[in-house]
Amino acid sequence: MSRISRLIFICLFVINSSNAQKSEEKKEDIKVKITENFSTKTNNVTILKNEFIIKNLNDISHKIWVYLPPDYHQSKKNYPVIYMHDAQNLFDRKTSYAGEWEIDETLNTLYKKTGKSFIVIGIENGGEKRIEEYTPWPNRKYGGGKGAIYIDFIVETLKPYIDKKYRTKPERKATALIGSSLGGLISYYGGLKHPKTFSKIGAFSTSFWFSANVHSFTKEKGALNKSRIYFIVGEKEGRNMIKGTEKTIEILKSVGFPFKNITKKIVPEGVHNEALWKSEFLNAITFLYKL
Questions:
Q1: 154 and 46 housed in the same domain
Q2: β-strand pairing of 200-204 with 228-234
Q3: Both 178 and 192 in a single domain?
Q4: Which residue range is the domain that position 190 belongs to?
Q5: pTM of the model
Q6: Tens digit of pLDDT for each residue in 127-180?
Q7: What is the pLDDT of residues 23-39, one digit of tens each?
Q8: How far is it, in rounded angstroms, from Cα 99 to Cα 101?
Q9: Which sign does the torsion angle of CA 40, 46, 50, 53 carry?
């Protein structure tokens, strides 16, 4: 083989190898995408056919996800109910923004080990309208402030619908409200605003920074409330997030909120994401429901 022929052969080999590698990389990309689009929700999670447009909030049709206990259809029991926000992120990696909470897997495992079971109602957020839905007061920079309408919808419309459709324990002592970030803020607000409906609040990585009105609200409502509250914040979420949680707890204590009803946890290395909230969900309901 001449020198020129050898050079041509080497060039063709390199080109073909490069194309082959790109083809394999493309195949791997397809595999990854297929994996990411694979639904991970368990069989006992469904989405209601009936969707809800919340009057005076926005024109978005909100889907409602329902987790039923593994023994629901084999029993005649009534179950405590946990209301949660951001339903897209609770049960299914396919619909999640950055990973899921794995609520269904966690509760299925809990049932197998202890026999304890819950109904979970997840309300999908309104996408670009999420800020206005999950904030009770407006922020000068980010807007928002329609959270009271959203919470009143849960209390006055959704909960009665769920209590009628499913075998629930409708009383306050069996009903929780749990969320993260702005969802933590609206859970805290809703739990304190409606103490006759909710007695358990999960405030995960709560955005207390969004409005200083939370301080006066806490002073007003905290003194009259005997709920159980589980606060968590990640160590790496920033000092403002930690200070916001600590200040809120200080105000609660100052107005006579029962200290024994509060758990505060700063999670080492915790960051603001679903992985943190997933890791603390079981701890939260263990405290809230005295499991």
A1: yes
A2: parallel
A3: yes
A4: 41-288
A5: 0.87
A6: 999 999 999 999 999 999 999 999 999 999 999 999 999 999 999 999 999 999
A7: 433 333 333 334 457 89
A8: 7
A9: negative
Whole-angstrom distance, CA of residue 61 vs CA of residue 288: 31
Cβ pair 145, 132 in contact under 8 A: yes
Percent of the chain as helix, strand, coil, to the nearest 5: 50, 15, 35
Query: How many domains does the structure of the chain reveal?
Result: 2
136 with 261, same domain: the answer is: yes
Q: Decide: residue 31, CB within 10 A, 0-12 exposed, 13-18 middle, 19+ buried.
A: exposed
**CA separation (Å) from 231 to 34, 46, 71, 106, 219?**
36, 29, 30, 19, 17
Q: pLDDT per residue over 218-269, tens digit each? A: 999 998 889 999 999 999 999 999 999 999 999 999 999 999 999 999 999 9
Say which amino acid occupies 77: K
Neighbours of 274 (CB within 10 A): 19
Query: To the nearest whole percent, how much of the chain has pLDDT over 70?
Result: 88
Asked whether residue 2 falls in the same domain as residue 144, the answer is no
- List the alpha helices (DSSP H) in the chain: 3-36, 103-114, 130-133, 147-153, 159-165, 182-193, 213-222, 239-254, 274-288
Tens of pLDDT, residues 58-90: 999 999 999 999 999 999 999 999 999 999 999
Cβ atoms of 88 and 96 closer than 8 Å: yes
Considering the domain architecture, whether residues 155 and 272 belong to the same structural domain is answered as yes
Answer yes or no: are the C-beta atoms of 123 and 62 closer than 8 Å. yes
DSSP code string of 2-62: -HHHHHHHHHHHHHHHHHHHHHHHHHHHHHHHHHHTS----TTEEE-S--EE-TTT-S-EE
Residues 137 and 171 in one domain: yes
- The helix/strand/coil state of 155 is helix
